[in-house]
Amino acid sequence: MLPSRKSPWLGRWIAALLIVLSPLVIPAAPAAAADDLVGTEVTFHNGAVPLHGTVLAPAAGGARRPGLVLIAGAGGVSRESYRAEAEAFARSGVVVLIYDKRSGYSRATSSFADLADDAIAGVRLLRARADVQPSRVGVWGHSEGGWVAPLAAVRSPDVAFVITAGAGALPSDRTQLWSNRTYLSHAGVTRSLLEPIGVNLSRMMVAAGLFGDTGHDPVATLRQVRQPLLAVFAEHDRSTVPGESVRLFRQALDEGGNRHYTLRVVPAADHDLRHSTDGFVPVRPSGFAPGYLELVTSWIAALAGGAPRASADAPPAQELASAPLRPPAWYETGGLQIATVAVMLIAFLGYPAAGLFRRRGRTRPATGRWAGRVLAAGGLVCVLGTVTYLFSIVATGATTAGSTVLGRPLVWLLLQVLAVTVVAAGVRLALRLRQAGGGVRRGLLLAGGLVFVPWAAYWGLFTP
């Protein structure tokens, strides 16, 4: 939602040579866990990168058990975000590793290859445990982790099986922009504003290399997966494209010759596989969707009897189709947009600043005084408000668009009213200056207003 990025840890090659190829496990005091589980704090390494996690295992002894490494979704989430899943899987007889993201993780700079190698280090850790059957250690990935888990399987034969939950088969940038449009549509935003509010800024960030590992091709990776794979999709997933992904998963696995996959759609589930009737609001009290945990644990247990035969559910309904990203036009380049904003800010801020330095006692006509003030103040607030709001949409994935008025978020409606006011003030100022003349100060302000018009039109501030 760019080419794949390299690891930022290149400066630590010397330290990497001092670390054993197998993970270094540093035992600590037992972690807090339910009475029927044993939690152990661990530290392990992917090359020079230390990773910190918790292993949850059934308290009861017995034969060696399957192992499972949980790979988190996007963002700097901690291991605790997936403790509920980990404890449920552990109670079913699986030894589970949850771990924090690598230090310095950023969606914009950490490649999926880096994250896959982190997960592989976790697999090696579990394979070395006395209570784990080494040949039965797999990976489970949620959301962004659903891109990482198949990649880990391709990169290491130590991965015995793959489970994805809420995963997508489309590139991350296309997925995110589909999600933005979905959330904005649900909030009641009119179709004509979906791209200005939910798409355009993200497209610029992708082109500038600020949107993460968009060079990763999930379909190409799935074609290379040879291990048994369980893909769990949510009926009401609003963050990854569910209907298209089911079809692409099946197509890619078939083309790659994998005959041991299971594709399941969990009814009444949201992106996090929590119980929800629409995917936007979880059913309270929030809990996992009925049947989800049992599906995963029973599938893992059944692997002891052999790999499953290929089977797939019908794709769930999907209201909006995803669309490939359009390459930015010349006027959509980040450099030009930044320069445009800078010119407007200089013009709008320069007008009152220059007024403070006028020589006292010098008489000046009051031509366009109020129009100039409205243009300067309104333009400044409108530009800064628009930029701030658009970046908030990117930061939250459009999940906080809020209620709408007349088919637009209330904040956007206010910005549109302000934009029209700014243009009206600019026209008024231009007419007054034409009649009575004006100085450089007002001329520069009017120039800023002229730049404002096409900029505001592009960002949808005049869109009905």
Automatic annotation (TrEMBL):
One Pfam family named in its UniProt record: Peptidase_S9
A molecular-function term among this protein's GO annotations: serine-type peptidase activity
GO biological process entries: proteolysis
Signal peptide: 1-33
Keyword annotations: Membrane, Signal, Transmembrane, Transmembrane helix
Transmembrane segments: 334-354, 374-398, 410-431, 443-461
UniProt domain Peptidase S9 prolyl oligopeptidase catalytic: residue ranges: 115-276
Name of protein: Peptidase S9 prolyl oligopeptidase catalytic domain-containing protein
Protein's organism: Nonomuraea jiangxiensis
